[in-house]
Design a protein that fits this description.
With about 290 residues, the protein is of the alpha+beta class. The chain has eleven helices and 14 strands. It has helices spanning about 10-20, 35-40, 75-80, 80-85, 90-95, 100-105, 110-115, 120-125, 225-230, 240-250, 260-285, and strands at about 5, 25, 45-50, 60, 65-70, 130-135, 140-145, 150, 155, 160-170, 175-180, 195-200, 205-215, 220-225. The chain has a five-stranded antiparallel beta sheet with strand order 4-5-10-6-7. The N and C termini lie far apart (about 55 Å).
Length: about 290
């Protein structure tokens, strides 16, 4: 029989996870988990609902940096003016998850730990160099977002661990991010390719730091390491965009499925990298 508990503290949640006799699942937003329960894809023995734990929902700003509770919904992210101004790409990625109704429940932690290769918020968070705070029986640890997902449906979290918060760093001047995805329909679809870009420019508009992350083109989100060589030390001209396009395509390891072939996804990845970089650069120039 499926058991349910809603602890009031992080320690209580950790003890519940550690003491579960079988598989335990965290209920953060629930937009993935509830669907999987109804379809029979997920059959946990215990559900641990973390939404009653203080600070698990909400956004706190400290000197330009942000702490986002693990159960904070996409709708709350979208309504936070300071977060939208500092990290528009992270917010727009979160606000692409499902419908308006879904965004009222869906959380960054749920989207990350569901471990879908096509998750929208994950490339944007990694491009932002976000970290997450993980709580477990051994205490708390802060790790990069990209270290959490290890494969489709799999994470690096131990059975007694769960994410309690995300940290987004303070932005320097002339820095911005963006996220775009390509989908077959106009909305509420799964990404064929997603692209998150974060850049920092100097006063002359030359790129001093850059990160490009692709989703839905490999088992996990892909950090395009060659994007640094394509962008850093340059303005965003045709040559830089061509180099970024090639770097994105080289980084892809997609599969053929009903939403796109390997060749198609690879080509689209280059296009999405270009378009997202153009938006991120334009935003950075205006800061």
């Amino acid at each position: 029989m499926l058991a349910y508990t809603a602890p009031w503290t992080v320690d209580e949640a950790v003890r519940a996870l550690a003491g579960a006799s079988g598989t335990a699942k965290i209920l953060s937003g629930g937009t993935d988990l509830l669907v999987q329960l109804r379809s029979g894809r997920a059959k946990p023995d215990l559900i641990v609902d973390i939404k009653k734990i203080p600070d698990m929902s909400g956004i706190h700003e400290h000197d330009g940096a942000f702490v986002i509770g693990a159960a904070t919904s996409g709708a709350v992210l979208g309504e936070h003016a300071a977060l939208r101004a500092a990290w528009p790409g992270v917010v727009e990625a979160a606000n692409l998850i499902g419908s308006t109704q879904v965004q009222g429940r869906a959380s960054l932690a749920g989207n990350l730990c569901n471990a879908s290769p096509a998750a929208d918020s994950v490339p944007a968070l990694i491009a932002a160099r976000a970290t997450c705070v993980v709580a477990g029986a051994s205490g708390r640890r802060e790790v990069p977002v990209e270290s959490i997902v290890t494969g489709p449906g799999r994470t690096s979290l131990a059975r007694d661990e769960f994410i309690v918060a995300f940290h987004l760093p303070k932005r320097p001047p002339h820095a911005a991010d963006a996220y775009l995805r390509f989908i077959p329909r106009t909305e509420m679809d799964i990404a064929v390719v997603g692209a998150g870009v974060s850049v920092t420019l100097d006063a002359a508009g030359i790129c001093t730091d850059a990160c490009l992350v692709l989703g839905a083109v490999a088992p996990t989100a892909v950090v395009v390491t060659d994007a640094v060589a394509a962008l850093v030390g340059r303005k965003l001209d045709a040559a830089a965009l061509d180099a970024l396009d090639r770097a994105a395509q080289r980084a892809c390891k997609p599969i053929d499925d009903k939403r796109g072939t390997i060749e198609y996804r690879t080509k689209v990845a280059g296009v999405m990298a270009r378009r997202t970089a153009e938006i991120a650069f334009e935003r950075a120039r205006q800061r």
